[in-house]
Amino acid sequence: MDIGATEYVRRQLLAERDRGAAMLLISAELEEILTLSDRIAIIYQGEIMGIIEAEGLTSKPLG
Questions:
Q1: Which of 5, 47, 9 is nearest to 25 (CA)?
Q2: Using an 8 Å Cβ cutoff, are 45 and 59 in contact?
Q3: Cα→Cα distances 1→7, 10, 27, Å
Q4: How confident is the model at residue 1 (pLDDT cuts 50, 70, 90)?
Q5: CA 63 – CA 51 distance, rounded (Å)
Q6: Is residue 31 scored above 90 in pLDDT?
Q7: Which of 4, 15, 25, 31 sits between 20 and 30 A of 39, alpha carbons compared?
Q8: Which are the contacts of 19, defined by CB distance < 8 A and separation ≥ 6?
Q9: What is the pLDDT, as a whole number, of residue 19?
Q10: What is the rounded CA–CA span in Å between residue 34 and residue 46?
């Protein structure tokens, strides 16, 4: 997707979240995960290693 389309999708996801919708976002982009997530599940080799709250979290501990 181009930058405009990416921003449109991001705005739509945030609007749905604000309306109370639940969604599953799978991404390797840490900044995208932090921007769009309330909770983050860390998955390694197919196993959930932990679930953490995204509020106030930076990409360093996730990396």
A1: 9
A2: no
A3: 10, 12, 15
A4: confident
A5: 14
A6: no
A7: 4
A8: none
A9: 94
A10: 21
Q: How many residues does the chain have?
A: 63
The H or E element containing residue 59 is helix 59-62
pLDDT band at 47 (very low <50, low <70, confident <90, very high): very high
The phi and psi torsions of 18 (rounded to 5 degrees) equal -65, -25
**Who contacts 54 (Cβ-Cβ below 8 Å, separation ≥6)?**
33, 34, 37, 38, 39, 40
Which token pair is 45? 């080799």
The predicted model scores a pTM of 0.69
Measured between alpha carbons, how far is residue 28 from residues 18, 20, 25, 31, 55 in Å? Answer: 23, 24, 10, 9, 19
